[in-house]
């Protein structure tokens, strides 16, 4: 059974894909990774990686979705059958479903922090906070399993509700409402940071290139980030691509997604560092950058509590539009495969992911230093989830590239891509050789580092 859902409007696929792409990866992860890995040097490797790995695999993934018109698992089953390819390719679908379940489980916990901070900003709980208070307030949030579970539950339930309402009534309508509002907030935050922060210092920090800062660790981080930020290797864009009308240019849309995602990450990075430098704070806080340093910067500035609250609403909205793209592929599969209703499928996916998310919740408190995972692997559950993410996403992406590059016929690709012969050959060369080689290389080089 193939899906008979098609996005109602021509622009909806782009809207949905941008909604999926733009999220915690841009607002929370990119700025601190860039900060940790030498600013301009990181940006340079990141952009190169996007061009040779990100864009080609993004195109491949949407293409597989649109040409199969099914959810990722059923779609790969269908495509491997019609191409006389091994059924092993179906594992692309299974891998991506596993990745979706795992990523959603911790994504929801972290997005829950933004819910907490929206609230704290609105109530002015952090007004007049100093560095110590900001840090201890974050620590006490992490120390509370019940608070973390509460926010995690609220966030994942809201995301599930949108998907449960259906492709048109829930996802499409939700995004058409949310995305323009998010864009407006981003512009407000940028303007505010230019007015009240130190933008020249942020530009200097984020964009100045020092070749000595280029490093293999930087490349590793850039590779992981390009998969995460573009929602690759997870079936999200394959599922959305299945609803994409046939006449829309796939290559142009893919390019637009990457450009918008990168611009949003840059704007977020510049705005955050401008505020952080404006308040003379430390840019190298790592993952705590958004939750410790940034709130401090806000409360030092005029109207900062309100603007801070608006900022965390942006984070929440961006995270929800990403979370729904993790639920959709698995829910669509359950509907197609087991004839469940949409509500049943979404509930099953959300409950499974919610339960797994409790491991992340506990890894910040009751299991922070000793847990079943520590004994086994030496890392906590949250670190294990992150590690699995950084294995599953590139692995899924690698297989997507190989299948699209080697199993699909030239005619099919022509039909879907309809770009010039030159571009077509470039893309095919990239997905056949360059992207898989780059992923494999980084993987192999990374293994000894995990051990060490
Ligand atoms: N691209 C999202 C972000 O940058 O926050 C994260 C994400 C969404 C990853 C959807 C995977 C996915 F399927
Ligand atoms: Na992103």
From TrEMBL:
GO terms for molecular function: symporter activity. It is found in: Membrane. One of its GO terms (cellular component) is membrane. PROSITE patterns: NA_NEUROTRAN_SYMP_1, NA_NEUROTRAN_SYMP_3. Keywords: Membrane, Symport, Transmembrane, Transmembrane helix, Transport. It is a multi-pass membrane protein. The chain crosses the membrane at residues 12-30, 42-64, 92-115, 148-167, 179-199, 219-243, 255-281, 306-334, 346-367, 387-408, 429-447. It comes from the Bacteria. Belongs to the sodium:neurotransmitter symporter (SNF) (TC 2.A.22) family. This is Transporter. It comes from Halomonas halmophila.
């Amino acid at each position: 059974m193939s899906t008979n859902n098609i996005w109602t409007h021509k622009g909806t696929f782009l809207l949905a894909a941008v909604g999926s792409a733009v999220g915690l990866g841009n607002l929370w992860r990119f700025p601190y990774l860039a900060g940790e890995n030498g600013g301009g040097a990181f940006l340079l490797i990141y952009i190169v990686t996007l061009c040779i790995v990100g864009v080609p695999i993004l195109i491949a993934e949407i293409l597989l979705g649109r040409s199969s018109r099914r959810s990722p698992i059923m779609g790969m089953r269908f495509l491997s059958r019609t191409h006389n390819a091994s059924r092993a390719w179906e594992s692309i679908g299974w891998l991506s479903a596993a990745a979706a379940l795992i990523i959603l489980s911790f994504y929801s916990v972290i997005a829950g922090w933004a819910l907490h901070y929206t609230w704290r900003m609105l109530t002015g709980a952090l007004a007049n906070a100093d560095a110590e208070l900001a840090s201890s307030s974050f620590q006490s949030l992490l120390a509370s399993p019940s608070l973390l579970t509460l926010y995690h539950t609220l966030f994942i339930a809201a995301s599930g509700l949108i998907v449960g309402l259906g492709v048109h009534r829930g996802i499409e309508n939700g995004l058409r409402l949310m995305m323009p509002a998010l864009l407006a907030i981003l512009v407000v935050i940028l303007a505010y940071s230019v007015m009240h922060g130190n933008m020249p210092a942020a530009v200097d920090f984020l964009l100045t290139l020092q070749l000595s800062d280029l490093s293999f660790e930087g490349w590793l981080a850039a590779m992981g980030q390009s998969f995460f930020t573009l929602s690759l290797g997870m079936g999200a864009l394959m599922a959305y691509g299945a609803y994409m009308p046939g006449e829309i240019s796939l290559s142009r849309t893919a390019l637009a997604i990457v450009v918008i995602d990168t611009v949003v990450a840059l704007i977020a990075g510049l705005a955050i560092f401008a505020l952080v430098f404006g308040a003379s704070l430390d840019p190298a806080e790592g993952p705590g950058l958004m939750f410790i340093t940034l709130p401090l910067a806000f409360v030092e500035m005029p109207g900062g509590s309100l603007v801070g609250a608006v900022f965390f609403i942006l984070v929440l909205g961006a995270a929800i539009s990403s979370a729904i793209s993790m639920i959709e592929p698995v829910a669509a599969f359950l509907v197609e495969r087991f004839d469940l209703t949409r509500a049943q499928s979404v509930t099953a996916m959300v409950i499974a992911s919610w339960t797994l998310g409790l491991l992340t919740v506990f890894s910040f408190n009751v299991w922070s230093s000793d847990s079943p995972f520590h004994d086994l692997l030496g890392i906590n559950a949250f670190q294990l989830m992150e590690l699995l993410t950084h294995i599953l996403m590139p692995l899924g992406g690698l297989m997507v590239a190989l299948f699209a590059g080697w199993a699909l016929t030239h005619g099919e690709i022509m039909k879907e891509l309809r770009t010039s012969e030159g571009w077509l050959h470039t893309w095919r060369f990239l997905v056949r050789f360059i992207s898989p080689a780059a992923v494999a290389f980084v993987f192999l080089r990374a293994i000894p580092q995990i051990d060490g």
